[in-house]
Amino acid sequence: MPLLLNADRSRRVAACVLRRPSVGLAVAGWLVVNGVVAAVAGDALPFDWPATAERTPVGRLVDANLALLEVFLLIGLTYWLTRKRDRPDLADRAPDRATAGRETLFLLGYGAGALMIGCLLARLLGWHPFGLHLAGSIYGTHQHVSPAEAITWASYNLIVYAVVPLLYFRRRYSAAQLNLRSGDRRADAVLIAAVLLVESLVQIAALDPKIFDLSPHQFLVGVPLTFALYLAGAVLPAMIFVYAILVPRFLRLTGSTPATVILGGLTYTALHLWDAWTVFDSPGNAVLSVSFLLLTYFVPGMFKTVLTLRTGNAWVHVWAYHALAPHTLADAPHIVHVFRLE
Fold first, then answer.
1. What is the DSSP string of 35-49?
2. What b/e sequence results for 77-89 when a residue is b if at least 16 CB atoms lie within 10 Å of its CB, and e otherwise?
3. Is the pTM of the predicted complex or chain greater than 0.90?
């Protein structure tokens, strides 16, 4: 009987969520992006993606939608593992609506400015624009990436998206208000372990990461180096900027968990605007670039938001679904190449 009651309650919750206008818009947007890619891409994509060079545009759409399915399964796992926990109210951790609105606009404007400065600075130095990913992340690249570029990218992102916002907001809000403190360490650890295990197995099965082809020396040096670089350049910036600061304010402003999840996904996507593979030299390529930014990052960004909302702890997504898998798992061979580790 309890199982039947829980199943019935789950169906009612799912039906309520699907009726939300924000969810309808997100579903429509996802379908439109799929349609645009199918109509515009033709027989090949214009991106430098060595890791998936053999995949056709249709194959890449299939991959994106399978990734969507996997995330839905992870969301189900997350809800099941957190079903007995006291649900934290992140909206109460944000200030009043007027203040939350001002802070949100300020932070989004600051982030847009940081992306522009990162682009200009990197270009002046002869490098790829600085976004949330180092050039060659996940998809690989045929272009040259130097150790100096990797270190400067990580330093810039850490300072601009993590250190400066944290110093500013930490003066006004407690660690708990910024989702930096666990309310249940044991439950968080169980959730982290479960999600990390599933995601790692999926990554290994789907992507066949070359980390297992590294020599013992490359593994011992390259894996910790990859972890440190991506923790500084991608993971902590996303955690502080989006999930510690913006997510509670999105929830305060919208009063809607689904809308907050969607906004979290969109913000996370926007921070990858300058991924080195994007091509903006024609309207068609620009449309495809924006489409694949959404297909690649929107869904993971939403899941990171779900993990934060269910636990009240922005650190959970760091260990469960970012720092180790995919980045350390997928990008260690790339960093070994960048630093020419023999």
1. HHHHHH-TT---S--
2. ebeebbeeeeebe
3. yes
